[in-house]
Amino acid sequence: MAEKSQTPIADDIIRIKLDSLIKLNQQANQLPLKSRSIYSQLNGNYTSAFKGRGMEFDEARPYQPGDDIRSIDWRVTARTGKAHTKLYREERERPVLIWLDLRKPMFFASQGMFKSVLAAKAAALLAWSSSQHSDRIGGLVFSEQQHTELRPQRGKAATLHLLKRISEHSAWQTNNTNKKIIESQSANQALNRLRRVSKPGSLIFLISDFRNIDDSTESILAKMAKHNDIVMIFISDPLEQQLPPAGYYKLTDGVQELTINTAQKNSREKYQQRFTDHQEYLKACCKKYGIFFISISTHQPLLESLQYSLNLRNKHSR
User: Fold this and answer.
1) Which end of the chain is more exposed for a tag (fewer CB within 10 A), N or C?
2) Cα–Cα dist 309/42, whole Å
3) In a domain, 313, yes or no
4) How many structural domains comprise the chain?
C-alpha cells in the first residue's frame, strides 16, 4: 500500500479552514501564555515583563480617612449624601484581544504558506493558549472590505467562535476586491475599533505585515500601549526581504503574471534596504511605546518561532 502523501493541501497554503485552526489546540499547551512569565526582547538585551491583569470595579463603601480622593464614587456620594469610595479587584480572567490583518498584501508567499494563512494559524495558537489559561478571548479580524469585531468572552466556545469568524471571513474569497479603499485607512479604522473595545490591562496581539502604515497608525498604537500590553507580530516572506540572484523571474496572483529582472545589483540592494528600513521602523516604534516585537517568516516553523520570540524555550535548542 502506498504511503499517504504528507504534502500540505491547498487549505494549508493559500487559504485556511476551520478544521485546521481547531487542530492547533493540540499544540497550544506548548505555548504557555502566562501573563507574568512572558518576556520579549526589543533590540539587544532589553526585556520587560507584561504589566499584569486589569482591575475592575467591585463595590462602593463609605469614605475612610486616607482613601485616595480620586477613587470617590461621586454618583453614590450624591445619592446618599455621604462620601463613598470605589473599591476595585483584580480581574480573574484577563482580556486577550487578537487583531488579525487579512488585507490583500497578506495573500502572498514565495515559500511555505501565504502570510494570511500563517497569521491565521498564529492567531489560533495564541487564542487556544489564552483559553487554556482561563483568559477571555476576543478580537478584530479585518480586510479592506470587512471588519469583524468580537468582544472578549470566556471559555472554549469563545475561541471556537473567533476561529470560525477567521475561517469564514470574506477576505478568503479571491474575487473580493475594492481598489478604492486605502490600506492604511482600513488598518487605522480597525485599530481604532480595537482601542475602543479594549479594557485597561488587556493583552493585545497585532498580527500583520504592517504595510502602508502611517503617522496616524503610530498615534493609535501609542494611546493603546499606555494601558495595555501589546505584542506586534510582524509577518513577512523571504521574497519581501531579499530579491533572488540575478535573473528573470515570473510572479502571478493567479490572474495576472509579472516578469521581474534582478540583474542589477544596485536594484537588489535598494529592494533589501526598503525591507530593512520598514522592519527597523517597526522595532523603533515598539521600543518607543513599550510594545513587544516579534518577526515571523512564512518559511519558518510557526510554533518554534513563537516559543523562541517569547522566550518560552531555550534559545539554543532551536
Assistant:
1) N
2) 10
3) yes
4) 1
